[in-house]
Specification:
By secondary structure, the protein is an alpha/beta fold. The radius of gyration is 17 Å and the shape is globular. The model has no long low-confidence stretch (mean pLDDT about 95). About 25% of the residues lie in helices and about 20% in strands. About 40% of the residues are buried. It has a single domain (about 70-250), classed as 3-Layer(aba) Sandwich (Arginase, Chain A). A hairpin with a 2-residue loop joins strand 6 (about 75-80) and strand 7. The protein has helices at about 90-100, 130, 135-145, 150-155, 170-180, 210-225, 240-250; strands at about 5-10, 30, 35, 55-60, 65, 75-80, 80-85, 110-115, 160-165, 195-200, 230.
């Protein structure tokens, strides 16, 4: 397993490629992953080292946005299920394949993607099936090729992901509840595993016009159906203290 030691991305690759030539800082920090008990969520702390930048880019106003995440990635077990909590969403790609190698999920999984963004840009770069079983190659691909917006399509091309349920607005939430709420199994053909892939930027203030309780209801129902859960805190899109408070509210009392 990888992510056992922190590291920097110093080349103009991955999320570090955004505005690389314009930025004075030329590296992004990726922390190590640690286990965390669900009862110890108050131990999660925001990164206070100014050299450990998680994401940096220029916004629509052409002002530089420098963003810090937390001191660690976290592996959290709730009700015999595993949640991986991390910052930039492309890390989900690696953890899906790690979960497949551990037989938590299989090929042809159903992805419930709850996010402000679709994350389905296609960079036309993919892993071959044999390489997808080599976690070192998956790790390098995740951290040197993919970015926050293009990690789902490579997983579909390689058939780790079979189908995606996109939940990005009120209509998607209501449609999910109408079709799937409280059903023990989602209405799709065949035998499959379910991945819940949540981006906490879905709860950022600009989206407060979407009812919070509606979002929470869908997330918690999707958790019940999921075999594996990946959650991104997206430091460029949502304040990290807010993201962690939302995370606690969603999952602490399940």
């Amino acid at each position: 397993m990888f992510y056992k030691k922190w590291f920097y991305i110093e080349k103009p690759v991955w999320n570090n490629a955004f505005s690389f030539e314009k930025r004075q800082n030329k590296k992004l920090y990726v922390p190590e992953i640690i286990d965390l008990d669900i009862n110890d969520l108050d131990n999660i702390q925001v990164q206070n080292d100014v050299d450990k930048i998680a994401f940096e880019d220029f916004g629509f106003d052409d002002n530089l946005s420098t963003n810090y995440w937390l001191k660690n990635f976290y592996r959290i077990r709730i009700k015999w299920k595993e949640i991986i909590l991390f910052d930039n969403h492309n890390h989900a790609f690696y953890f899906w394949y790690e979960a497949r190698n551990r037989s938590i999920i299989w090929d042809n999984n159903l992805l419930i993607h709850i996010d402000e963004h679709a994350d389905t840009r296609d960079n036309n770069k993919y892993l071959l099936k044999p390489d997808s079983f080599d976690l070192e190659k998956v790790f390098n691909f995740t951290n040197e090729v993919l970015n926050v917006g293009d990690y789902i399509i490579p997983a579909k091309v390689e058939w780790l992901i079979w189908e995606v349920i996109q939940i990005r607005n009120t209509s998607n939430l209501e449609e999910y509840l109408k079709k799937y709420f409280d059903n023990s199994k989602l209405d799709f053909w065949g035998d499959y595993k379910v991945i819940l892939n949540l981006d906490l930027d879905f709860f950022q203030p600009d989206l407060d016009f979407i009812d919070y309780d509606l979002k929470k209801k869908v997330v918690r129902d999707a958790f019940k159906k999921a075999d594996f859960i990946t959650i991104s805190t997206s430091p460029f899109f949502i304040n990290q203290e807010l993201a962690i408070n939302v995370f606690k509210d969603l999952f602490r009392d399940l």
